[in-house]
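We emphasize that the prediction below concerns an isolated chain of 297 residues; any contacts that depend on oligomerization or on bound cofactors are therefore not represented. The input was used exactly as deposited, without trimming of termini.
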Amino acid sequence: MPRVVADSGSTTSQATVGTTIDANVAPNLVLVTDLGMSGTSDTTWSPLASARLVAQWPRAGVETSVLRGAADTPLAPSRDREAIQVQVQPLSGFTLAALTSLSRPAADPDAPDTTAGTLRVAYNGAPTGQLVAIRQWELTALRATDITSLEWRQRGPGQMAVRYVLRQDSGSALNSASDGSQVEVDLPALAPRRKGLDLRATLTAGASQPTDPEMKSRVSCRVALPETAVLTGETEFGLSGRDAQVLRALRMTTDLRVVATTRLQLSYSYIGNVPGALQPPGQMFAARISRRFRLGW
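Result of the prediction step, given as a token string:
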């Protein structure tokens, strides 16, 4: 699957080209490799490489990965990372998943590691829906972040979900500890479930700081167009005590079939000055071409 990604709106715009190869090496074992190059207008091109080994059984799964020079997004700095993920189903209805990783800037292999982890417990046996508890943490030399969330979701696609999120930050980078909490409500499908149309919305209320209340909403839509094309869009609006900005983010993606087994995906995203966003403000354009074929072995 060849890949070409380029962003705009930044003096350090980064472009990435590469390809991904999946190989079924055994009945329960899959090897995924990703090779490519990345560079900016001010730097030379650098190699990117990753390898993932995925093992699956009826009630368990393990995945290990090693990434060198890989970026989470084209706008994010390049990082080296090692990770392992485990998922088990000890009892009917219970699922336990854990993920831990170590990462550091690719440009400085001797930099202190960033340790991150996720623990997720889900119970599907409740008659009213699914209950999920998630704890996420990230630890660096200057900062520690701990996020705990509890979620209840109705059964069936497009149903209602209620989520409580508690975030705690501490460390010398912040000069003091800070806590924030919010309640998120995923509304049921906003339009009748017709063929090719999926319209959803999420409402969020809370405070990133005790004196900084914030309210925001997110609306997403997916429309199946004629000739096997799909258009997906998402907008985020918000108001807070610090920022009167209304439009926070806009994302649009078009996916269409070019010829048999070959698809073209074009995407555009705008990220405003969103507090706590992983991406800096700016715009990004991306183009991807994927093709499926059999090797015969």
